[in-house]
Input
Amino acid sequence: MENLGLVRIGVIGVGGMGAFHARTLAGFAGVDVVAVADPNADNANAVARDIGCIALTDPMQLATSPDVDGIVIASPDATHPDLCIAAIEQGTRVLCEKPLATTLEDAQRVVDAERAIGPRLIQLGFMREYDPAHVQVRNALSETGPIDYIRTAHRNVNALPRPVAQIIGQSLVHDIHSVRFLTGSEFTRVVAHGGGARNGSYRHIVVVGELSCGAHVALEFDDGGFAYEVSVEVLGRNGDVLTAAPSRATLRRDGVVSANIGADWFGWFAAAYAIQDRAWVDSIIAGAAVGPTAVDGLIAQQVVAAILTSLETRQFVDV
Output
């Protein structure tokens, strides 16, 4: 696309995440969010009024529109593959929220469709690649020597139980990609254990794995925690590096020192989402996609599938 003016953006799915994208993008210089689409007309109309754009209730109408330069897909996970394929077949650049798909077959369909078109058009929303804390860890790894061990801790706040596949595919998938992003290595095998039974699901899940670089990995996840927190620690031969926590005020009262951790994942990663969205818009202007790829989404789905199998078999599963 030759950039002769404003970058025209459409946003599909404007619940919490999509509304955040729409409002963030509408605040960027050089961007015109021309339309939002959501089968829930109330959602679509509320966001459209907020930012001054067209409201649609047919997501596919927006995905196949020739009048946009880029599409954000933040609709329910199972809708991502068909919407991605429809948009890229139109030649439209896509920022798709993770996961790319909910099955390996659908993830492969998206990858195959993009390869058939030729140029890369999809950026996947693994926004931790743009999170300053994670970027600082990656930049510091040149000082730690070869990686021996990497550990992620992900504390989520969900009062109600979620299906295991949703926990792994929606939430733990971020940690899977973080490991790949930070180490440049692939999972070779995993074993997973769940605990804290919750109506046929789990409250916490621990995954132990091995990477192609020879390092070991541990992914710790809690779905019914007391606060929202994400951290990563990487142990190298010459030292280790740990993500910094967000800055918080310290309260001193009644003989107690305390700080508010918070339960808001938007707040924790607000800067990362904004940096990601700006990078995506800039890539549309430049005509070259950046950031996580559809192939990254497919590989993450392969690891997800291995973890789900291991939870059933209680055995190591090759990826």
Summary: DSSP finds nine helices and 15 strands in the chain.
